[in-house]
Write a structure and sequence with these properties.
Chain lengths: 137, 126
């Protein structure tokens, strides 16, 4: 049986490196995303960015993966991400999270940050439900 | 508010696997290989067909590109690989710089809401 999460439980920091074009292009292909802000440096610079920007949904997806891996058989059922600052190609962001509240239905609320230390580029909140019963209920 | 859709949306096993690999795979999300990753529906939202409809509805064109300000994904029930769902959008322009909010509901063939998305996106000049 999986122990319930408690306030203060923390997801260990995990680095996400966005310094490989292949990482971004694999996501763009998988997502069918042809937005040139994520693939063409000239377009990104014309739009005011230092270089191509990492797709927010790639970062959010990797946050989801990190939370899911950490939370084991529990169910990540709700994830909100606020993109405070663009993550530019070449960056490494550190993802960390902590359970800050518990709901009456047993779900845990986790606050998550992603970015350089003390300067998060992404603020996120996850709702992690208890594991599903074996019969799926 | 602008209503768009519903759009028929689905994902093959290969598409789901490629997406899962690209985001580092959600191995512990309570979903097996038969279920889509939590954030997969964003693919449908930002895919060329849906994005084209969004941009047309907002009066934008190729010279404007969307950038996420925030995104929420809620899963009420697992979305299955290979199954077709209906995704309907409500789009609300919310400031004079072209930013807009979009809310999407994904329903199964019984009309049950399986997942909801909400996002705010800004448009930047290309």
């Amino acid at each position: 049986m999986t122990a319930p999460l408690a306030i203060g439980d923390g997801m260990p920091p995990r680095d996400l490196c966005f310094d490989q074009r292949d990482t971004i292009s694999a996501y763009l292909r998988a997502a069918g995303d042809d937005n040139p802000l994520h693939s063409d440096s000239a377009t990104a610079r014309r739009a005011g960015f230092a270089d191509v920007i990492v797709p927010g949904m790639l970062i959010m997806g990797q946050i989801a993966s990190a939370v899911a891996a950490w939370s084991g058989p529990r169910v990540l059922c709700d994830l909100t991400a606020r993109f405070v600052e663009p993550v530019v190609f070449g960056a490494t962001v550190t993802v960390a999270g902590r359970v800050v509240a518990l709901r009456a239905d047993g779900a845990a609320i986790m606050r998550i940050t992603a970015g350089p230390p003390r300067r998060p580029h992404v603020l996120a909140e996850a709702v992690i439900a208890p594991p599903l019963a074996p019969n799926g209920g | 508010m602008i209503h768009l859709g519903p759009f028929a949306v689905s994902a093959s096993a290969a598409q789901a696997a490629a997406f899962g690999q690209a985001i580092g795979a959600e191995s512990g999300s309570g979903a097996g290989a038969e279920n889509l990753p939590l954030t997969y529906p964003v693919v449908w939202l930002l895919g060329p067909d849906c994005r084209a409809a969004l941009m047309a509805a907002l009066g934008g064109g190729a010279a404007q590109l969307p950038v996420h300000l925030d995104q929420r994904v809620q899963r009420h029930a697992p979305l299955r690989v290979g199954k077709t769902y209906a995704m309907a959008l409500d789009v609300t322009p919310y400031d004079e710089r072209g930013a807009f909010a979009v809310a999407a509901e994904i329903r199964d063939d019984q009309g049950q809401v399986m997942a909801q998305l909400s996002a705010r996106l800004a448009l930047v000049a290309a």
